[in-house]
Design brief:
heterodimer, A: 5-stranded parallel sheet, two-stranded parallel sheet, B: alpha/beta, two-stranded antiparallel sheet, 9 strands, 42% helix
């Protein structure tokens, strides 16, 4: 039974190792967990999953595997599981209603359908006739009109008991493909660290001191070294205005995280695409512009170039002279981005648009080609992958 | 070893899943890694486990400069160098210059101790890897004196992390893991209750309401956590603030009193005041 569960977890994208499985079995043998499914769930989670962003995934696999296996636990202990009854009561069905449920294919099927919908649905919902929410005619939800409806969330805390812990999926928003806060970004950015010693020598280098002293026949010869700093240098180019307005929050977070993380960070703004000039101050974007040429000359190839933008625009804005929506550009954006890329070979483009939509937007496809496919979604996972490319 | 179970203490509320993880780690004598939002009681857990199971506690707080070796022992080369220049007698025995670290101390304990390795993510990325063997076998070798130090009793090792760095897989595989999630209202009431047993019901209700409302304010840089809530209640009690003052639907006092204990970030306070101001204006119009 557990072997199958173990392989299901691995197929599901978790990577528990044999050591961890053995630890779980050992813990079960020594009777740490009682004989309830919940105990087993907690124990298995503590032993097999070492990352809270994977809890949601674990919950889903657990639910899929142990659907119906709760019965096995019941046989094991030869007693009627309380929740089973509680859940039945939760339905609060009268005889007639029960008959109507039969028309839907019976209780089991209703619960299965409910679970499936919970899996599909991730947002709050009101009205309508399919999703789980309030005031609708779907069989699932609260304050609804469907006689065979399953109440959800209508009874406050009483309900909490009825839903299986793993079915509640409380860890959904910790999944690293979804949420992105300043903190998460910082953690991701930290992978882009390269320590180097530079500046004034103000720390005692013990090893070298001992070595030199020994060579100096025991007379002290003190050696100093500079402190270690994160020496990574980053050029950050952010798209502002227009279609980027939807992504302001995530870009702000990205920016504030980057600013506190890197000592050498230079940032510039652009609108839609890169042309012959960029700016540093949004309020004075028309007055104070910095020629792109100046940037390529001023900063060395050791700078890593990061674009943040949705790359969503008309393709003309990239490939034609005069394509820019704001001004007349003598040379097309594609030429400018190639110049930047030849100066800064380490570059990535982070895109806040959901990745599924990339293929349907020609300008994103175009930008991706210009970037040699180094475009990543602006999620923690995408940032991770992107940073790996920057190394 | 007797089978003691950790079930929380009179001053610490442990949820079911936390108890399960701790007990599994204690029984199998493996380290347990605790993660969670700051202020949810990660470090406190080690103190409470030690108290509940009546074990001595060794705390090792990690800083960005901490090396794994320092937990085992340090060879104080500088003292020895100085002593050698002064011609001291003790310089001949290298053992005089071996300074024991926290792990060594825990290994020497006469009863099974609790060892807290606090904020392991602060250290260098390689730090956890350097401790694999020690945590696995519970022994290490002192090269200077050619001595093998072995744990008398395998300590209960509690490791906390703030998730600033990813920990290596090899290290994670050897631990049990628990993520302390932010307590729901019910658990929070129990937590406040063990800290302030005599608290008036209305004050608690109003305080919690104001607190969760504040946590729901969008865009806060640092949401107030359990420890901040406890501090705030302590202040409210000290100032003898009546429960009515906390009611946020009162127009004139829309800012909860002493909110400095809850919001620790200048921008957050600013944002909050702005929201309150806008809210008040829309109400008076």
């Amino acid at each position: 039974m557990l072997t199958r569960f173990f392989y299901m977890l691995r197929e599901g994208g978790l990577k528990p190792s044999i050591t961890e499985l053995l630890a779980l079995l050992e813990a079960m043998q020594s009777g740490v967990a009682g004989h309830s499914v919940e105990d087993f769930y907690y124990l298995a989670r503590a032993a097999l999953v070492k990352d809270e962003t994977k809890f949601d995934l674990f919950d889903r696999v657990f639910a899929a595997h142990f659907r119906g296996i709760e019965d096995a636990f019941r046989d094991l202990r030869a007693e009627v599981p309380e929740e089973w009854l509680r859940r039945q009561a939760e339905l609060m069905l009268s005889e007639e209603e029960r008959a109507e449920i039969e028309s839907l294919g019976g209780f089991e099927q209703l619960m299965d359908a409910l679970r499936e919908r919970l899996e599909e649905q991730s947002e709050r919902h009101e009205g309508g006739n399919k999703w789980i929410g309030t005031a609708g005619t779907s069989p699932f939800g609260a304050y609804g009109y469907n006689p065979e409806g399953v109440r959800i969330g209508q009874q406050g805390s009483r309900h909490r008991r009825a839903v299986k812990v793993w079915d509640r999926r409380e860890y959904r928003n910790l999944d690293d493909t979804v949420e992105l806060g300043t903190r998460n970004i910082k953690i991701a950015l930290r992978k882009l660290r390269k320590f180097a010693r530079e500046g004034a020598a103000d720390q005692l280098d013990l090893d070298d001191t001992i070595d030199k002293t020994a060579r100096n026949a025991g007379l002290l010869d003190i050696r100093m070294v500079p402190e270690r700093h994160n020496a990574v240098k980053v050029l950050l180019c952010l798209d502002v205005g227009g279609s980027m307005d939807d992504h302001v929050r995530v870009c702000e977070e990205m920016f504030s995280a980057a600013r506190s993380e890197f000592k050498h960070l230079e940032y510039f703004y652009f609108h839609n695409f890169i042309y012959e000039s960029l700016w540093k101050d949004n309020r004075r974007r028309h007055a104070e512009r910095i020629p792109t040429n100046q940037i390529t000359h001023k900063y060395g190839a050791d700078y890593k170039l990061v674009f943040v933008g949705d790359a969503t625009m008309s393709p003309y804005e990239i490939v034609y002279p005069g394509g820019s929506v704001e001004h007349w550009n003598e040379e097309p954006g594609a030429v400018w981005i190639k110049r930047l890329l030849s100066t800064f070979p380490k570059a990535v483009w982070l895109n806040p648009e959901p990745q599924q939509r990339w293929d349907y937007t020609p300008s994103i496809k175009l930008t991706r080609e210009l970037m040699d496919d180094r475009m990543f979604p602006l999620t923690v996972r995408g940032l991770d992958d992107g940073i790996r490319k920057l190394h | 070893m007797s089978q003691q179970k950790f079930t929380g203490t009179h001053s610490y509320i442990a949820t079911d899943d936390l108890m399960m993880a701790v007990n599994a780690a204690v029984t199998l004598q493996r380290p347990i890694l605790i993660k969670g939002e700051p202020g949810t009681g990660k470090t406190q857990l080690a103190l409470e486990v030690a108290t509940a199971l009546d074990r001595p506690l060794y705390e090792w707080h990690i800083k960005s400069t901490t090396k794994a070796q320092q937990g085992l022992y340090d060879y104080d080369a500088v003292s020895r160098l100085r002593d050698s220049q002064l011609g001291e007698e003790r310089v001949r025995d290298i053992a005089n210059y071996i300074v024991r670290g926290k792990i060594w101390e825990a290994f020497e304990s006469d009863v099974q101790p609790v060892l807290l390795i606090d904020e392991i993510d602060k250290a260098d990325i390689e730090f956890p890897n350097d401790l694999l063997q020690e945590l696995d076998r519970m022994e290490f070798f002192v090269y200077e004196t050619r001595e093998l130090v072995k744990a008398r009793y395998r300590p209960i090792i509690i490791i906390t992390s703030n998730n600033e760095k990813e920990l290596p897989d090899a290290f994670l595989r050897r631990c049990f893991f628990h993520y302390i999630k932010f307590p729901d209202k019910e658990t929070m009431e129990r937590i406040v209750d063990v800290h302030f047993p005599g608290l008036k019901k209305e004050l608690l209700r109003e305080a919690l309401q104001a607190f969760y409302k504040l946590r729901d304010v969008p865009g806060l840089k640092k949401k107030p956590s359990t420890s901040e809530l406890l501090d705030w209640i302590k202040l409210l009690l000290a100032e003898d603030v009546p429960p009515e003052a906390l009611r946020t639907d009162d127009n004139r006092k829309a800012i909860p009193p002493l909110y400095g204990a809850l919001l620790k970030n200048e921008q957050d306070v600013h944002l909050f005041e702005q929201l309150v101001f806008l809210d008040r204006r829309s109400r008076t119009q």
